[in-house]
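Chain X:
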Amino acid sequence: MTTAPRPSSRRSLRSARTAATVLITVLSMVIMMLGLGLATAGVTNSPEHAQVTTLPISIGTIAVASWVGITGTEELALLKRLLPGGSATELVVNAWNGGVPVTDSLILLVPTLSWVIVAVALASRIFRWEPRR
């Protein structure tokens, strides 16, 4: 009876780092979108309007993610990485393809986390809870 070969520790470590990178990226994007959603809700006059006010930000981020995911970052790399969701999309694509070392991809966390900071700062400054009536 033979057993299946065990994956090398180097390979499993790389997989763990890749999974951690994807998890950090996804969580940062969720926090960014939550912050931007709260910020736009702070400038609307009703919950119904908040849905429409947030729509351009959602569509814009989806468009950037699609643009980067489909075309890559060989052309207009700086622009694509600085737009909200661009560097996060590149991080996920790099992790999915596995061709880029995690240490080389970590620089892409800077614009992603910068957008998180901007979104949280805007949300804390603009969004206010109103008492129930």
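Chain Y:
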Amino acid sequence: MTAREMREHWLDREVTPLSPILDMTVKYAGHWWNLDGTDAWVRATDSNAIALYEATQKRSAEVLAQIQRKLQH
């Protein structure tokens, strides 16, 4: 997918970055995508990488929720 296509999906709020900081790996249309350094996005197909992305996203969400709770107190 071209960077322009992904940018359009991102602007339409259809893209979820791996974390607020790690935005070179994103989830779009039920798949993980990586920015390949040549201004194109490549869908992740390696099951180990996908499992790592899922675990990282879950952990990132947990850490963010902890930080938000601390800031509210």
